[in-house]
Amino acid sequence: MKLTENFSLNELTKSQTAERKGIDNTPSTEHQENLKSLCEMILQPIRDHFGQVVSVSSGYRSPELCVAIGSSTQSQHASGCAADFEIFGVSNKELADYIDQNLDYDQLILEYWKESDPNSGWVHCSYTNGSNRKQYLRAYKENGRTKYEPM
């Protein structure tokens, strides 16, 4: 099922962990609608702007999949409102800054990006059909723990 011109439901629900562990990662109708909105408002505009493939590493995660990977069942991934992605050859900081300056989003996290390695990490972005917070954060490791700071 196509969600937008360049994004499919399969792409936003594919999980190697789910396949390996036999976890059903099928989103409900409501979660599919959230994924469609995420694609229409965030992923497709990014694809159109950069003219390159947006590689999604994680989209929808069922509650069972969240538990299996050590994520929270309250994550926006579990409601189909978030995706982790990057564009190979484009700095993740440049990508996150573009989103911040041009798109309506709920939460934007530049995950584990290092200035010395522009292609490090990835971008997490969520979109809700409602009041988006426009919260822009950077995630980094300190003493083995993930920390977040405002951008």
Structural summary, described in words:
By secondary structure, the protein is α+β, with helices and mostly antiparallel strands. The protein has one domain: 2-Layer Sandwich (Muramoyl-pentapeptide Carboxypeptidase, domain 2). The chain has five helices and eight strands. The chain has helices at 9-13, 16-21, 29-50, 63-69, 92-102, and strands spanning 2-4, 7-8, 55-58, 82-86, 107-111, 122-126, 135-142, 145-150. The longest helix is centred in the first third of the chain and has 22 residues, at 29-50. The protein is globular. The mean pLDDT is 96.
The run of helices and strands is: EEHHHEHEHEEEE
Let me know the number of strands: 8
What's the number of structural domains?
1
CATH domain class: Alpha Beta
Q: Class by helix and strand content?
A: alpha+beta
Strand content: 25-35%
Oligomeric state as shown: single chain
CATH topology: Muramoyl-pentapeptide Carboxypeptidase, domain 2
Give me the CATH architecture, please: 2-Layer Sandwich
Note the gap between the termini: 36 Å
Main sheet, how many strands, which sense, barrel? 6 strands, mixed
* Biggest sheet strand line-up: 3-4-6-5-7-8
* Helical content band: 25-40%
Average pLDDT figure: 96
Radius of gyration: 15 Å
Q: What is the general shape?
A: globular
In brief:
Helices cover 34% and strands 25% of the residues. The protein is of the alpha+beta class and 151 residues long.
Which labels suit this protein?
5 helices; 151 residues; alpha+beta; 25% strand; 6-stranded mixed sheet; globular
